[in-house]
Amino acid sequence: MTEPLEKRLEQAMAELHAAQEALARTERELRETSFAVLSSDRAVRATVGPQGELTGVEFLEHKYRDMSPQELAASVLEAAGAARLKMNRHVMKAMAPFTEPSSNVPELKGFEVDWERIFGPEVLRDDEGPARGGEQGPAWRDALDEDGED
Q1: Does residue 47 carry a pLDDT above 90?
Q2: Taking the model in full, what pTM does it have?
């Protein structure tokens, strides 16, 4: 009776060690990851680093010269937000195996992560394109037309 318990403990320890190594490898890979996204008007490319921090902004094809400051700001915010969302989803996908229970050791239940609380509700949405309901883009972009230029 002791042998099965010892074997199960040995198996659980081996799986825990493998999970620790996989987690360390995943963390290293994530630290080297970045995502770049173009704004919908293709005027701006924003790049974010592994923690969602803005690491680069490119103004493409001199389109910024014909844009109002509000339009340019909206393009930067849109591209940066989309890149951050892409990074957040990448982190979720990379960390998903560590949240699932072990198939070999039933006692290792995995852990629950409240991704919405960490990254915000948009990270759980399936849509990658324009918002549903016929909207063409973020509501804050529509507000530009209402505000006019200062």
Answers
A1: yes
A2: 0.70
